[in-house]
Design goal:
The chain has about 475 residues and is of the alpha/beta class. The protein has 15 helices and 15 strands. The strands form three sheets. Strands 3, 4, 5, 6, 7, 14 and 15 form a seven-stranded mixed beta sheet that branches. It has a six-stranded parallel beta sheet with strand order 10-9-8-11-12-13, sandwiched between helices. A two-stranded antiparallel sheet has the order 1-2. The longest helix has about 70 residues.
Length: about 475
């Protein structure tokens, strides 16, 4: 969902499984001297294997579409090669985005087919620069925006996809900035043309884009922000700048908006899709703008839910241009992943965002930090909507004690799965027993009927005899 395509050689070196054979030891050559004794003396040492063949790094790899377990931590061999205009970044922190969750289920078309390393944003330090790179040097602290390939310890990207981290900004904040803030900025100001005294509806106001959009709205005078989130998050988003909080789980957000703003809204940011896009359009006042940028309603459960996907497509929003003209409304679609080749536009937006950061007007909110080993738990937290702010991954190796704790948790999960399986089997067995009991009960009346039949026959035979008498 962000940045240019990763360069071909990075994909080869990073994303595909490499099974390079260890380098053969070069044969010792006698020193080139005229001395016969020296010529007879074997070389004392052999050359070391090149760095490219001993270089290893850890990377998260999407091995197939499905649940959280489809993203696995692997060790890669071989130092990625640099082309002209590229830099090698030692990654410190990676950002997790909703598009990554959809990609895991095969619902995000900007990620190549597995096996592939996901990740659209990260922060780190430049370790090497390629030819023709003049504005980056080794040691620069940078944030990176790319279409994929950043959930790993080292990444090769075009230098134009990097942005210098300003003084005072942490690696965590830097990794949380590119995707969410560029998305929110371009939607509100390029498409939305946000101005003073306007009103905006922000869905998932406690998420990464939601918090970024709220902060950016507050940079404009007297903007009224409606924000949807579960009730437990209302205090946090109110403190962040949301004017009117709405619990979408217990209330109809359309009705709640209409109570406060009967004429409707100036801007609606829609990441949901399906029937919610229809509601968003109907909430617009004349000259209002609907900006749709996702289809979160398609995501239901760990794996692809075909019913949710079909339902979303069935309710897909469609409108005739004549209706737009007569309604004096506009509908915009935004997808950061398809802004390939528009780095000049993205850089301008990022420069403005960084200026706002330096002025203290925007600041990423970090919900939680997870090790690469914990990526499944990180994705679960985000997919179950339990985060307030950005979920990020650190490349710092997990301490041994934490690894042991994680192993215990996994064992408990496995035990729970086994227990659940046993319970299910017991339920099935109990169900079969109940069925047998029911069948037995049904058979009892039949047996009684069969017993009664001979008696009835005898009685019938006796009846004529009685009548003759």
């Amino acid at each position: 969902m962000s940045g240019e395509d990763a360069p071909a050689q990075q994909q080869n070196a990073v994303d595909q499984k490499q099974e390079t054979k260890p380098a053969e030891e070069p044969k010792a050559e006698p020193p080139k001297t005229e001395s016969a004794e020296a010529a007879a003396t074997p070389a004392a040492t052999t050359e070391k294997a090149p760095e490219e063949e001993t270089f290893t790094y850890r990377a998260l790899v999407l091995t197939g579409y499905g649940g959280y377990d489809k993203v696995k931590l692997q060790v890669k061999k071989g130092k990625p090669a640099l082309k002209a205009g590229e830099v090698l970044v030692r990654v410190k922190v990676c950002g997790l985005n909703f598009a990554d969750l959809m990609a895991r289920q095969g619902l995000y078309d900007r990620l190549p087919s597995p096996p592939v390393t996901p990740g659209m944003e990260c922060s780190g330090v430049v370790e090497a620069v390629g030819e023709e790179v003049t504005d980056r040097k080794v040691g620069d602290k940078v944030m990176v925006l790319n279409r994929f390939g950043l959930w790993q310890e080292v990444a090769v990207v075009p230098a134009s996809h990097t942005f210098l981290i300003p003084d005072g900004m942490s690696f965590e904040e830097a990794a949380a900035l590119p995707v969410n803030y560029i998305t929110a900025y371009l939607m509100l100001f390029d498409f939305g043309n946000l101005r003073p005294n306007q009103s905006v509806l922000i869905h998932s106001a406690a998420g990464g884009v939601g918090i970024a959009a709220t902060q950016l709205c507050k940079t404009v005078k007297d903007v009224t922000v409606f924000g949807t989130a579960s009730a437990s998050k209302h205090e946090a988003i109110s403190q962040g700048g949301v004017t009117h909080t709405i619990d979408y789980r217990t209330k109809d957000y359309v009705e709640e908006v209409r109570k406060i703003s009967p004429k409707g809204l100036d801007i609606v940011l829609d990441p949901l899709g399906g029937s919610d896009t229809h509601k968003a359009y109907n909430l617009l006042k004349p000259m209002g703008k609907l900006i749709t940028y996702g289809a979160a309603n398609m995501l239901a459960g760990q794996r692809k839910n075909l019913i949710a996907v079909a339902k979303n497509w069935y309710h897909q929003f469609s409108i005739h241009t004549l209706s737009l003209i007569q309604g004096n409304k506009s509908v915009c679609g935004f997808h950061l992943g398809y802004l390939d080749g528009e780095m000049e536009l993205l850089t301008q937006a990022m420069n403005t965002i960084l200026d706002l950061y330096k002025q203290g007007k925007v600041k990423p909110r970090i919900d939680s930090t997870w090790h690469l080993e914990q990526v499944g738990d990180a994705m679960r937290k985000m997919q179950e909507r339990n985060n307030i702010g950005k979920v990020i991954l650190t490349t710092e190796p997990m301490p041994e004690e934490e690894k042991k704790e994680e192993a215990k948790k996994e064992d408990k999960k496995d035990d729970k799965k086994k227990d659940d399986k046993k319970k299910d089997e017991k339920k099935k067995d109990d169900g079969k027993k109940e069925e047998k009991k029911d069948d037995k009960k049904k058979e009892e009346p039949k047996k009684e009927e069969k017993k009664e039949e001979p008696k009835k026959e005898e009685e019938k035979k006796e009846e004529p005899k009685k009548e003759e008498k």
